Amino acid sequence: MRSPSTNVAHVTDHGSGPRRGIPNKYKLFLMAFPFLVTTFIFYYLPISGWIYAFYDYTPGIPLSDTEFVGFKWFKSIVANQTQMEEVLRVLKNTVAMSALGIITSVFPVAFAILLSEIKTSWFRRFVQTLTTIPNFISWILVYALAFTLFSVDNGVVNTLLIKLGIIEEGINFLATNSNIWLTMIAWYWWKSLGWGAILYLAAITGIDQELYEAAEVDGANRFRKIWHITVPGIIPTFFVLLILSIGNFINNGVDQYFAFQNAMNKDSIEVLDLYVYNIAFANNFPFATAVSMLKSVVSVFLLFMANSLSKLVRGETII
Question: Which of 84, 132, 173, 198 has the smallest number of CB atoms closer than 10 Å to its CB?
Fold first, then answer.
């Protein structure tokens, strides 16, 4: 008769045999592999198109039959006064839009704090859902909404102002240079505020709740708990995102400005990405490629500068 210890040892020996399977590090790599492939296809593979900046390329003609012109298109960026003024105008719009984005980057922070202070859970989820949904709406639909509200003929705002006797005829809000930068940043945050607050809400959730309890015991009111616990708890997250936005300073994107641009506001709304898009569709692909290449080089330089700033201020890098 076997003793209980012998049975336990027998079961233990039987179940402790070598397990065959993929190591965890390879499992993690396989999970990330589709995203690496996607990144390569959409971000690195298109770099091969930079070769067009060195040719006098015309659509429809094979590149092998196209004249090699070297740095001609790069030199043409500053070749004459008119072209230089165009580039400076576009850069001014780009810097203004990006600077406004960085200055107002505190909006999602404040919004996340306000959301976290809502004690009724169903109402907090309702507000967060309502403000996050616009992030998934295309800019074309956003412009359709803007047109419905601010159209000069039948727009809701103009109709209301006329009925109230404030104005006698409709104002063309969408076809004006007046305050166009502020208008664009306002539409941007209307669309992105709820989505931008998600990371800060996660950071607030990670704050030790015992800190709030200790502060309450010490007699701290809600405002003091926010200022001395919540704000310091999300500053690291805010600083990392701020550094990344500095590295992405001249990449404003195309969608929003393409949807809202027209002949009346083009001079003030045309940012660098939209400028490249417009030039490309004017069949000047080599020049558009050259401008895009310089933009990418500047972006990489700003990213390394931001990384150095992070190392200097926080003692650690972001890349």
Answer: 84
- Tell whether domain 55-139+167-314 is in CATH 1.10.3720.10: yes
Domain coordinates in residue numbering, the chain: 55-139+167-314
The predicted-structure confidence for 238-289, as pLDDT tens digits, reads as follows: 988 888 888 788 888 889 999 999 888 989 999 999 999 999 888 888 999 9
Please state whether 179 falls in left (phi above 0), alpha (psi between -120 and 50) or beta: left
pLDDT tens by residue, 13-27: 444 545 567 788 788
Predicted TM-score of the model (pTM):
0.81
Cβ burial of 219 (10 Å; 0-12, 13-18, 19+) is: exposed
| CA distances, 126 to each of 121, 196, 197, 200, 263 (Å) | 9, 16, 14, 18, 40
The burial of 284, by beta-carbon neighbours within 10 Å (0-12 exposed, 13-18 middle, 19 or more buried), is given as middle
Q: Which residues of the chain have pLDDT under 50?
A: 1-2, 5-6, 8-15, 17
Report how far apart, in Å, the C-alpha atoms of 128 and of each of 189, 205, 247 are. 14, 15, 28
